[in-house]
Amino acid sequence: MINKKSTIEVKGNEIAVFKYEQNDYISLTDIAKYKTDDTSAVIGNWMRNRNTIEFLGLWEMLYNPAFKPLEFEGFKKEAGLNAFTMSPNKWVNGTNAIGFIVKSGRYGGTYAHKDIAFKFANWISVEFELYVVKEFQRLKENENKELDWNVSRILSKINYRIHTDAIKENLIPEKLPSAKIQQVYASEADVLNVALFNCTAMEWRNENPDKEGNIRDYATIEQLVVLANLESMNALFIRQQIPQSQRLVLLNEQAIQQMKSILSVPVLKKLP
């Protein structure tokens, strides 16, 4: 199942990229448009080349246990002859290949595993291939940064559960009205907000009326890491019955120290 679509822009051309079963497939149709609008003919001409058939067969033998080597040998013998024709569908149906995905419909086209797509781009133009690889790498770097942010956000939410449990067990008396309970939770959440962001949730909303979500949705990866640590610390401080005003001072000191430590690491300085 194809589960995610992205695009890269290469020399004014948009090229689609699909994530399929943890592998990246790049649109050969979009790459071929760099050369001509008759994309099927360009892909077919590339695939009827003997060197291309040998490359595709070797790639499938490396990564596809269900590949049919006998059918591949038959195609390889015919490759290069005047009467020989090849297309992605013919290759997939004949050899049980996994290197291509052919989609029909308005947003259809021919997609190939990135290894194969780069080879095709090289055949189109060596210069164009270099730009495709460069933009693809930029896309993956951005995706990894987004993944890092999401992981940090999830970690922060898990730790926040530990934090709220500590509030429930130590700061909320029995039979409080739900509105009062929410006030206590919000108050403790703002202890963390002030310690790290130097403002309460309400202050942030008043200063950012056009933004959706809350202050933590706009935190950096570094801030989310520190926030997760502060939540654990505050839960411990609450169980130790340290007053809120003292906890705020301690948490602010930790936030400053941890942010300085994290930002001193050269690799982390590059994160958005």
Q: Describe it for me?
A:
This protein is α+β, with helices and mostly antiparallel strands and 272 residues long. The chain folds into 2 domains: 2-124, no CATH class; 143-269, no CATH class. The chain is built from 12 helices and 5 strands. It has a 5-stranded antiparallel β-sheet. Strand 4 (100-103) and strand 5 form a beta hairpin. The radius of gyration is 28 Å and the shape is elongated. Mean pLDDT is 81; it is low at 267-272.
List the helices and strands and how they pair.
Elements: E1 2-10, E2 13-20, E3 23-27, H1 28-32, H2 39-47, H3 50-63, H4 69-78, H5 88-95, E4 100-103, E5 109-113, H6 114-124, H7 126-170, H8 178-197, H9 201-207, H10 221-239, H11 244-263, H12 266-269
Helix pairs in contact: 3-4, 6-7, 7-10, 8-11, 10-11
Brief characterization of the structure:
The protein is an alpha+beta fold and 272 residues long. The chain has 12 helices and 5 strands.
